[in-house]
């Protein structure tokens, strides 16, 4: 009897995970193809082959789903960045790793890049998007945590500016390069700019 209950519970848990995954995949597909505003809950549930009632059992509204997707993308991005940074010996190696980690993640997760970019646009428009800003603050804090051991005496405001500069450099480059270049060309073209960017950031961090 106990084993039977455990089996049923496990099946139910797997079904919950699978359904949530289907809704998130459908939401990601719709948001990146049509944009957050143009996407509807009906569109998402049709792509997931699920009913609207099922959607509302997992997410209270479209923005809640968007937040879950942004959280997921930020988790993946930070993991890729930490892997690229590895065990650096100095600040310069950290900065190269930060740029490389962003590139590795976004080139392999283009939908994630589009999603994060759309989320930033919504923030800039100062719209009612609930807690959508929190994953971005966590992302910047993650970058700062990698930099701070190699710049312990630097003003925290300056470290935050550096984190913003890294995010802006990669996202700004990719926003147009993804349209015009294939992945190999992207990596070749960003290399000289990455070196110049890192050199500039090293000089910035060295200034009082």
Attribute tags:
single chain, 208 residues, mainly alpha, Arc Repressor Mutant, subunit A, Tetracycline Repressor, domain 2, 9 helices
Summarize the structure in words.
The chain is mainly alpha-helical and 208 residues long. The protein folds into 2 domains: 59 residues, Homeodomain-like (Arc Repressor Mutant, subunit A, Orthogonal Bundle); 145 residues, Tetracycline Repressor, domain 2. The chain has 9 helices and no strands. Helix 1 crosses helix 2, helix 4 packs across helix 5 and helix 7 packs across helix 8.
Outline the fold blueprint:
Elements: H1 2-34, H2 41-48, H3 52-58, H4 62-85, H5 91-108, H6 110-124, H7 133-147, H8 156-180, H9 183-206
Helix pairs in contact: 1-2, 1-4, 1-6, 4-5, 4-6, 4-7, 5-6, 5-8, 5-9, 7-8, 8-9
> What is the mean pLDDT?
86
**CATH architectural designation of the largest domain:** Orthogonal Bundle
Overall 3D form: elongated
Structural class: mainly alpha
């Amino acid at each position: 009897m106990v084993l039977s209950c455990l089996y049923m519970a496990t099946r139910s848990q797997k079904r919950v995970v699978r359904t949530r995954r289907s809704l998130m995949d459908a939401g990601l597909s719709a948001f990146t193809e049509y944009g957050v505003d143009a996407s509807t809950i009906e569109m998402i549930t049709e792509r997931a082959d699920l009913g609207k009632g099922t959607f509302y059992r997992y997410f209270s509204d479209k923005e809640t789903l968007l937040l879950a997707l942004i959280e997921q993308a930020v988790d993946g991005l930070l993991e890729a960045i930490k892997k690229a940074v590895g065990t650096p010996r100095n600040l310069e190696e950290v900065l190269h790793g930060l740029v490389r980690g962003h590139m590795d993640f976004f080139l392999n997760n283009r939908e994630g890049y589009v999603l994060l970019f759309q989320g930033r646009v919504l923030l800039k428009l100062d719209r009612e998007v609930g807690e959508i800003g929190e994953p971005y603050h966590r992302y910047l804090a993650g970058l700062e945590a990698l930099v701070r051991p190699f710049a312990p005496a630097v003003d925290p405001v300056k470290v935050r500016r550096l984190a913003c500069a890294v995010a802006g450099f990669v996202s700004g480059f990719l926003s147009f390069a993804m349209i015009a270049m294939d992945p190999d060309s992207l990596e070749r073209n960003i290399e000289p700019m990455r070196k110049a960017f890192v050199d500039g950031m090293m000089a910035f961090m060295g200034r009082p």
